[in-house]
Amino acid sequence: MEAPGKSHRRQGRIARPSDSEEVSSTEWEDIDMTEQEEDLIHRMHRLVGEKWDLIAGRIPGRSAAEIERFWIMKHRKGFAERRRERKKAKPGTFIK
């Protein structure tokens, strides 16, 4: 049998939304990159893979997280479909 008061020690800290810096991918905004930045990201990715810190070191003013988010949004199937829908939509139309 467990001693009274010890069970609370086993309970982990409950994570609250404010405790995490992660944001749902549906809440991500498009990241505007120049053609030169996009080109450099593509070339660096071919050379070093998903080493976002290394890639960010070559692009002044861009963080590794920002570059990774740009890459995911540009290359993942769900994001690509959403981008195409936005381009086809008429101005003022709401798309999830």
TrEMBL record:
Location within or outside the cell: Nucleus
Keyword Transcription regulation attached: yes
Domain Myb-like residues, every copy: 29-77
Region (Disordered): 1-31
GO BP: any one term: anatomical structure morphogenesis
Biased composition (Basic residues): 1-13
Biased composition (Acidic residues): 20-31
Coiled coil (UniProt feature): none
GO molecular function: transcription cis-regulatory region binding
GO cellular component: nucleus
InterPro entries: Homeodomain-like_sf, Myb_TF_plants, SANT/Myb
Keyword Signal assigned: no
SUPFAM superfamilies: Homeodomain-like
UniProt keyword list: Developmental protein, DNA-binding, Nucleus, Transcription, Transcription regulation
PANTHER family associated with the record: MYB-LIKE TRANSCRIPTION FACTOR ETC1 (PTHR47998:SF93), TRANSCRIPTION FACTOR MYB51-LIKE ISOFORM X1 (PTHR47998)
Protein name per Swiss-Prot or TrEMBL: Myb-like domain-containing protein
